[in-house]
Amino acid sequence: MQKLRTSISILSAIILLNSCNSALQSFKKGQKKFDNGEYELAIKELQKASGAGYELGKTNYLIAESYRLSNRPLQAGDYYEKALASNSRENDLRYHLAMTQKMQGKYKEAGENLEKYLSGIPSKELKNKAQTEIDLLPEVEELANKKTYIEVKPLSLNSTGTEFAPIPQGNELIFTASRKDIIYKNNGLPYLGLYRATLNSPTEIGTPSLFSSTIFKDNANEGTPTFSKDGKMMVFARGNTGKRSDASPDVDLYISKNIDGVWSEPEMVSVSDSLAWDGCPSFSADNKTLYFGSNRAGGKGGIDIYRANIDNAGRFGRAINMGSDINTAGDEMFPYVSKDGKLYFSSDGHAGIGGLDLYSATRINGEIKVEHLGIPLNSRFDDFGLVAIDSTKGYFASNRDSGKGDDDIYYYENTQPGKKYENVPPVVAKKDEPKKKTIRYFLAGNVTDINNQALDSVKVAILDNSTNQAIDEVYTKGEGTFGKVKMEEEKTYTIVTEKKGYFTKREPFTMVGKSISLDKLTKAETDTIFYASIKMEKPEVGKDITKTFNIAPIYYNLDKSEIRNDAANELDRIVQVLVDNPTIKLELGSHTDSRATAEYNQKLSQRRADSAVAYIISKGISSARIVAKGYGESQLVNKCADGVPCSEEEHQANRRTEFKVLEVK
């Protein structure tokens, strides 16, 4: 009997040990899949470990994160709760739990978890977002009761998969859907592709078919197209395939053109940042601007909305952040500009009732007003990708719980045009409350040639020096004027002017020390405009550009050719001139004073020129674009020839480097 009990105990221990090993292996496999971004596969392995009771706090948190990162927040919420109940110590758990509770309409619970999160050690990335969410919660509860006269109907093409980004084109609807044969390991759904279907009615759609065989990668996500006004040009987003041959490790914008009824092979758009996520593009109604979402460096938060001007030749300008009136610490994406100039977009950073909510932005008297579009366009879930047919109807997408699948497409229409809200609470005026004084700063200016003649059609970009990103890009008018561009206090900027046939030029502009005390204001709102005057010159062979670009003299220590720190700063400016002006070739001419023999000075000046050119080439400039030339003491700028007594400062003036234009292409 004793032997039997011993055998049973050993067998139980073996079974328990095997069970622990199995759970551990499942956890390790799940963690590896999670690290690789294969969230659906991670969930399957981690659920095995969770079912076996293996480190429930950590395992359930990873399951929750897998659901969140694959855009399934409600499923994530259940596992955040389980992780919290298992005493998980993950730092950001309460923040993510609060966001899922907000989507469930549990605003009180969400607020409590956000407060607890901030009372701990919040991450730098989420601290401000958490505080913003707390500040906005009272407004969120009001928005949840803001019902409009809009009716929403699902489209017949919706499936158990994903359908979104609807674009009406003639009698067809172009849309993005998860209908490819290969499964995307991130969310367990097929890869996204572009499809088309006939519009039999606003909600009844014909049988979908592939949009184009030339715009189809079976192992990459493709979608969110936008079309030019004539329908002959399309920009869309394409993700990477995970192969080394990919042009980018992330999502990028691609362009294709319809030539004789056939779409061309897509090419990456020049404005796309290969190191960032770029997606959901949208042309303006006049085709002169491309709007898109990006998480590139220098933004306001997660994904921001940017715009890029398009010139008459179809070339894209710099990407310009739409600013803090639109972009927040959260995500802003899916921009769409209607024919009347109203910007529609989705955001989870403005006051909203769920995940991504739909908003409109309009500019009134220089101020941008952002408005929540209310219920039922918005729900507790993600609502995004709105396109307007006219001022009363259009399409959008949502993953609301009444749908068929992951994301579905809906048609909306205002049943009472001219009316907006069914139940708007009355506005109660507050008495004896002093108006808050505000001041706005703007930059305007003019661009002329060296003869003070106004230059029109000059592209003027304003760069924020802290991010090196353009905050605005405008063109001068017939009288050479530009502006107004909104400025921020205590910031420094660079004004970049560009016009064909002229040097591209950079001018500094600072707001440091220019703020006006609010106590001195007599009005509630005050606008202050600063002006900049810029002269542009034409590149000519033989022209010395040191004065044109305010390049300080490049000096060398006596009898030396090494680049000094002060000289390096000026050479960096020459590098920028060459980058900004790719059509010019320069001569770097080095000069000495008259001390020592002419032969020695000739060799010394050549060494100095070679040294400076080597520095410029080390910064990425082609050696074919700059030539080193030593002049020795043959071109003194003053009286200090051999035998003439001169001060050290006078000799220093002769030890100089000049930059002349050798060639203009």
Automatic annotation (TrEMBL):
- List the InterPro entries hit by this protein, alphabetically: 6-blade_b-propeller_TolB-like, Bact_OuterMem_StrucFunc, OMP_bac, OmpA-like, OmpA-like_sf, TPR-like_helical_dom_sf, WD40
Which is one Gene Ontology cellular component term of this protein? cell outer membrane
- Quote the subcellular location field of this record: Cell outer membrane
Primary subcellular site in the record, as a coarse category: membrane
Alphabetical keyword list: Cell outer membrane, Membrane
The OmpA-like domain extends over: 543-665
**Does the record bear Membrane in its keywords?**
yes
Q: What is this protein called?
A: WD40 repeat protein
